[in-house]
Design goal:
The protein is of the alpha/beta class. Helix content is 22%, strand content 28%.
Amino acid sequence: MQLSDFNYDLPDRLIAQNPLAERTASRLLEVQAGNLIDRQFLEILELLKPGDLLIMNDTKVIPARLHGKKPTGGAIELLIERITSNQRAWVQIRASKVPKLNTSVQIHNRKGESFEAKVLACDGRFFEIEFPKDLLDLLDQFGELPLPPYIEHQPNQVDSNRYQTVLAKNPGAVAAPTAGLHFDEAILAKLKGRGIDQATITLHVGAGTFTPVREENLSLHKMHSEWYSIPEATLQAIKKTRDAGGRIVAVGTTSLRTLESFAINQQQSGETNLFITPGFPFKMVDCLITNFHLPKSTLLMLVSAFAGMDNIRKAYQHAIAQEYRFFSYGDAMFLTRL
C-alpha cells in the first residue's frame, strides 16, 4: 500500500468552519456491506440495538496554544503536544528560528501578563519545555483553544463549548475526539433508555493527529504516541456485552485505537502508537461512529482498514457528491466492521 492510495480531492467549501446550531443536527452516512444510506444523526437511535455498548472518549481539550517571544525578541508559538508532569510538556514550536536548548522563552497573554518557560530538550519533532508552576493553571490563564489548522477563524465562545464533548472531564487533549461532538445529553439519555449501555475510555489526543503522513511507503511512517486509560468498569461492561451477544460500538477513532491497543498489550493505561492500516486484525470493536477524515491521514487509513478500502473510497465519493460537511465540525459516518 502506498500513501497515494489514501488521497482524494475535497472542495474547500465542504470543510465545516463552524458547528451546527444543535449537536445532533448533523447528517449520518451509514456504510454497511458496500451499501450507502443517507441518514440524519438522530437515526443513530435506530441503528444501535438494545444490548450494544457505546464507548466514548472522555478526554477534555485544554487551551494548548501559547504565544510569546524568544530571547531575541522574535515571535514564538507553542502548541502543547503532551503533558508529562505538572510542570513539563512536549510541544510543537513555530518560530522563524527555533530557540536554543537551555534558554528561556517569554509567554504572554492579552492582559499583558507573562512568565518564562525553559527549553530543555528536542527529540527532532517536539521540544521539552519546563514551566514555572502547574501547567494546567498556566494554560487556563495564558492558553488559547487549539482549533485545527483547517478551521480559519480564531477560537471564540462558541468554540469553547462546542469543541468539547458533553462527556469531557479529563484534561489533556489538544484536539477534540470529534465523533463525540454529535452527542448531547438528551440523545445519550434516550439511548440508555432503549437498553444501549455506555462506557468511557480516556485518550489524550495529541497535536500529531494533524501531522500529515510524508512517507509514500506506509511501512516507514512513525506514528505519534498518545496516553490512554481504560477504567475497570469499562472492561467489565465490554465482557458483559460480549457474553450477551451485543456489539461494541466505538465513538471515534480514539476510542477504537484505545480498545485495540488493549487487545494487543493487555495494559489498561499507558502509551499507544498503534498505526492501523488495511489488513489489521480487529479484535474489540464491531461498529464505529466517526467523522470524515483528511486526505492521506492515518485516520483515513484506519477507517479503510475497518470498513474496507473500496467501501470507504465509494463512501467519500458519495459524501462529496452529496455535499456532506467534512472534518471536525462536519458530519458523521456509521461503519460496520468488514
